[in-house]
Specification:
Layout (H helix, E strand, L loop, with lengths): L1 E2 H11 L5 E5 L12 E2 L9 E2 L3 E4 L6 E9 L13 E4 L11 E4 L3 E3 L3 E4 L9 E2 L10 E3 L7 H9 L4 E5 L4 E6 L3 E2 L10 E2 L2 H11 L5 E6 L3 H14 L2 E5 L10 H7 L3 E5 L1 E2 L7 E5 L2 E6 L3 H19 L10 E5 L11 E10 L2 E7 L16 E5 L7 E6 L1
Parallel strand pairs: 1-20, 6-7, 14-17, 14-18, 15-16, 18-22, 23-25
Antiparallel strand pairs: 2-13, 3-12, 4-11, 5-7, 5-8, 6-10, 9-10, 19-21, 21-22, 23-27, 24-25, 24-26, 26-27
Helix pairs in contact: 1-6, 3-6, 4-5
The protein binds ligand LQZAQKY5 and molybdate ion.
Length: 390
């Protein structure tokens, strides 16, 4: 059995980034860059107005100036004759000869003339060419995950396509003869499938597109065959159930038979101890114990790290935060408990963590209200605890 932190270190060591692919920038939100991105154009592209108003030569104000022409965004600007002014709109190119823009609120105007009352400040309300970024400048780095805002920043700088890590192809094997898919008739001894839908929904939310889920019978032969087929088609295989030491728990042996190398089996954590991590070249197996809360923890704390490593994310650490417990429970045993909790946010104080009832690994009901997993170490004291938003 290894510690939770050692398990995380094992992912860093054994999970390699998948190959990269080019993608239109506009479609790359959520993806990880594998090459630096370089601005294709100056930003702004040309000297331009930041306000709706009038372009002048600073030395011509104050005074009453004839209005000669108009500059609009997307059009060409007229030349500014000395002693005159040009109507200009936000984003329009600055007329040659102009050095200042005066907002319309600060002038008196009729159809032909504009009176500039105060002395205008030279250079005001002008966005200078390339003041934000110059063409050829590096604006994003390999390993960065693109947010919608990041996508917009790249598009603004004329970056039409980016090199990103391709998405993993994932197969989910749901074992358990007692497990019945949703909507099918239930015998008295049947268990409605919770883990299959949990894993599938979680992967979809994490951006995985190529995903298949297969129900597998509890025989060694069926598990062997399903795992071999999954490895033929996938970068990542996730299994539910059959990971412990029972008579019908075949996943660890089947992993060996498939030529996977076990990096660890069993993690000092509660729930979800009999978790297996193995790999074969670039392919990864994460075998999760069947109890649904163990699967949930396996996704939030283990699969999340594995996906970050597969994506080549330069910041793969789990985003732990700190909150205050009303009361710290006494733990049984020496494994840390990752407890489902409700974090209450109040802008005036640190988050308050309410541990929810029903922490048994066979119980899922509190996931209907949980928004955090709180890490409770047996030796910890005091009210502060790390938690992961979920
Ligand atoms: N002698 C030992 N027994 C057990 C140990 C141990 O170390 N020694 N570990 C326990 C722990 S901890 C866990 S967790 C479970 C995990 O075992 P498995 O991975 O083999 O899981 P299963 O036995 O297949 O299933 C456990 C439980 O979960 C239900 N289940 C399974 N799949 C689904 C599904 N898709 N949807 C809903 N529920 C599911 C299944 O019916 C069982 O009730 O082993 C302990 N035993
Ligand atoms: O560690 Mo198991 O997941 O508690 O039931």
């Amino acid at each position: 059995m290894i510690s939770f932190d050692a398990a995380q270190a094992s992912y860093a060591e054994h999970v390699q980034p998948l190959p990269s692919e080019p993608l239109p920038t506009a479609a790359a939100s959520g993806r990880v860059l594998r090459a630096d991105a370089v601005a294709a154009v100056d930003l702004p592209r040309f000297d331009q107005s930041a306000m709706d108003g009038y372009a002048i030569r600073h030395q011509d104000a104050p005074g009453r100036l004839p209005l000669q022409g108009r500059a609009e965004a997307g059009g060409a600007a007229p030349v500014l004759e000395p002693g005159s002014c040009v109507r200009i709109l936000t984003g329009a190119p600055l007329p040659a000869g102009a050095d200042t823009v005066v907002p319309q609120e600060q002038v008196e105007s009729d159809a032909r003339h504009v009176r500039f009352v105060d002395g205008a400040q030279p250079g005001r309300h002008i966005r200078k060419r390339a003041e934000e970024v110059a063409a050829g400048q590096r604006i994003a780095e390999a390993g960065q995950r693109l947010s919608p805002g990041g996508v917009a920043a790249l598009c603004a700088a004329g970056v039409a396509s980016v090199e990103v890590t391709r998405l993993p192809r994932v197969t989910v094997l749901v074992t358990g003869d007692e497990v019945v898919p949703a909507g099918q008739p239930l015998s008295d001894s049947a268990t409605p499938d919770a883990n299959g839908p949990l894993i599938t929904a979680w992967l979809r939310a994490a951006g995985v597109a190529e995903l298949q889920t297969v129900a597998v019978a509890d025989t060694r032969q069926a598990v062997d065959r399903a795992l071999a087929e999954a490895l033929d088609q996938s970068d990542l295989v996730i299994t539910s159930g059959g990971a412990s030491v029972g008579d019908r728990d075949f996943i660890p042996e089947a992993a060996d038979a498939a030529g996977l190398i076990r990096h660890f089996w069993k993690v000092a954590q509660k729930p979800g101890k009999p978790l297996l991590f193995a790999s074969r070249g670039p392919q990864v197996l994460l075998a999760l114990p069947g109890n649904p809360a163990s699967v949930h923890l396996g996704l939030q704390l283990h699969l999340r790290s594995i996906l970050a490593r597969l994506a080549g994310d330069a910041s793969p650490a789990l985003p732990w935060q700190w909150g205050r417990l009303d009361a710290r429970p006494t733990l049984k045993g020496d494994r840390p408990l990752f407890a489902r909790a409700r974090a209450h946010h109040d802008p005036a104080q640190p988050p308050r963590l309410d541990l929810l009832p029903g922490q048994g690994s066979h119980r899922l009901g509190n996931l209907l209200s949980a928004n955090a997993l709180v890490r409770l170490e047996p030796d910890d004291t005091g009210p502060w605890a790390a938690y992961l938003p979920i």
